[in-house]
Amino acid sequence: MSFFDTIRRNTDTVIGLEGLEPRLASKRPLRIKLGVDPTRPDLTFGHMVVLNKLRQFQDLGHEAILIIGDFTTLIGDPSGRSATRPVLSADEIRGNAATYLDQAFMVLDEERTTVRYNSEWFNKMGFEDCLKLARKMTVARMLERDDFSKRYQEQAPISLVEFLYPLIQGYDSLVLKSDVEIGGTDQLFNMLVGRTLQKDAGLPEQAVITMPLLVGLDGSRKMSKSADNFIAFTDAPKDMFGKIMSIDDKTMVDYYRLLLEADESQLERIHGEHPMMAKKHLAASLVGRFYTMEVAREALQQFEQVFSKQEVPDDMPVFTWHDLVGDAEQAVVVDLMVETDLFESKGAIRRLIQQGGVKLNREKIDDPQMSLPRTDEECIFQAGKRIFFKVIG
């Protein structure tokens, strides 16, 4: 397979790849740019899609440049947003950035990765420099973006700072003289701005490669923490395994293609397998990639014990009655469950109970306000498919 065929695999949009031929002919390694904004402390499998492509360039002998957008995070990427993103403090950004690198090197080759922080150059810019950069873009051009256009038509607020975000991301490409920029499909506009700024400066334009957005656990929306449909690099093995097993069959094929980079012959074999077996292999392979295959086999065994044989897991959180409700002799079930901190909110617990998704000692609970008496016996709760915990007197 040629270099260009390899690079095009699994991509969504590729622009300007032919412009790389003279640079490849010079035998100089290409500079491949990927920027991530540390808005949360953990990377998700959605990040793995673009990191896989960056690793592919590394394996072909090119330079991977991972930009930690500690400056751009102060603005908040408006891509795909229907509202202004909350602003993080500098301390929050620094803390998130530290964990991002540890996790990114689970996929990338650390020794062949150049890490840059875009505050390196933006902190040196004065207001006059910002005005010069802002002149490079018109309001009409910005409103070509779908998310800005929709928000403008709906009269939803768009801050002037958000208008600057694509320029700032594009300026990173100018500073680094990047040959290729990789991102999700929602980053296309921002990456094209990088090409424009390079052209205006008389530099060779970067090629732009967008990767498909990974669908989350709900099978419909982009994987994200805000949608609570994500799998994190740092999820415990059994949680990672269980989440993967919860996806639908169509999503499973996308995970094979985008996360394990399965080729067409492998995908054909997957289509010929029983979906449950194919999904177990997918889950074991991904858990094995972030941990070890021995840990993956243990996660498989635990899954089969709990879900195939309808047993409870050997390892689950254990709480004392006093830890959760103090000296009370009775407790409302929803109040007790929320004190475990295993759930998003009391409302989420209430909905789960009303939908028949909570069991106490294998018996379904149907009333969120049910009162539980204190007992010396163990009480085992199951919430949904994956959450188990034990309460002892």
Short description:
Helices cover 45% and strands 14% of the residues.
Describe this entry's structure for a reader:
- With 393 residues, the protein is of the alpha/beta class.
- The protein folds into 3 domains: 3-211, HUPs (Rossmann fold); 237-307, no CATH class; 318-392, RNA-binding S4 domain (Structural Genomics Hypothetical 15.5 Kd Protein In mrcA-pckA Intergenic Region, Chain A), CATH 3.10.290.
- Helices cover 45% and strands 14% of the residues.
- The protein is built from 18 helices and 13 strands.
- Strand 9 (358-360) and strand 10 (363-364) form a beta hairpin.
- The protein is globular and about 75 Å long.
- Mean pLDDT is 90; it is low at 80-84.
CATH-derived topology of the largest domain: Rossmann fold
Gross geometry: globular
State the name of the first-level CATH class of the largest domain: Alpha Beta
Largest sheet: 6 strands, mixed
Class inferred from helices and paired strands: alpha/beta
Low-confidence blocks of residues: 80-84
Strand arrangement, major sheet: 1-6-5-2-3-4
The share of residues in helices is 40-55%
Number of strands: 13
